């Protein structure tokens, strides 16, 4: 009978050890989960802070891009107007050259006759 009692005692001690190990492991797991959650939250806060810091820079870049696009469009319109004016002036010059040639021909015929 003594062997059964001793075996039961050993089993009870082993069960108690396993329960203590299980409890310790659960506590360690809970601590690890809690620490991980805090680490993730800290990371999220850091990301949000960086996003807020970059937001004005992105807005400024967008404003500069919009301004540059407007200036480019304005310059393109001015270029088109200048090209149109140049074509008009070329036409005027061509007409003047024709008139000069006509006047020179008339003058030549007037001198010859």
Can you walk through the features of this model?
This protein has one helix at residues 2-112. The protein has 113 residues and is mainly alpha-helical. Helices cover 98% and strands 0% of the residues. It is built from 1 helix and no strands. It starts with a helix and ends with a helix. The longest helix is centred in the middle third of the chain and has 111 residues, at 2-112.
Which range best describes the helical content: under 10%, 10-25%, 25-40%, 40-55%, 55-70% or over 70%?
Answer: over 70%
Q: What structural class is derived from the secondary structure elements?
A: mainly alpha
Instruction: Tell me what portion of residues adopts beta-strand conformation.
Output: under 5%
Give me the number of helical elements. Answer: 1
Largest sheet: none
Give the mean pLDDT.
Answer: 93
E-strand count: 0
Order of helices and strands: H
Globally, the shape reads: rod-shaped
For the terminal residues, how far apart are their CA atoms?
Answer: 161 Å
Low-confidence stretches: none
Give the radius of gyration: 47 Å
Top keywords for this entry?
113 residues, rod-shaped
Brief summary of the model shown:
By secondary structure, the protein is mainly α.
Task: Outline the fold blueprint.
Layout: H1 2-112
Keywords: Coiled coil
Coiled coil: 58-106
């Amino acid at each position: 009978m003594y062997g059964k009692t001793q075996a039961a005692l050993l089993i009870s001690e082993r069960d108690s050890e396993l329960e203590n190990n299980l409890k310790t492991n659960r506590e360690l797991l809970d601590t690890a989960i809690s620490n991980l959650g805090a680490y993730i939250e800290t990371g999220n806060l850091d990301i949000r802070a960086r996003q807020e810091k970059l937001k004005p820079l992105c807005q400024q870049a967008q404003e500069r891009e919009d301004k540059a696009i407007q200036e480019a469009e304005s310059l393109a319109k001015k270029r088109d107007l200048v090209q149109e004016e140049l074509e008009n002036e070329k036409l005027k010059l061509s007409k003047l050259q024709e008139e000069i040639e006509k006047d020179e021909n008339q003058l030549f015929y007037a001198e010859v006759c």
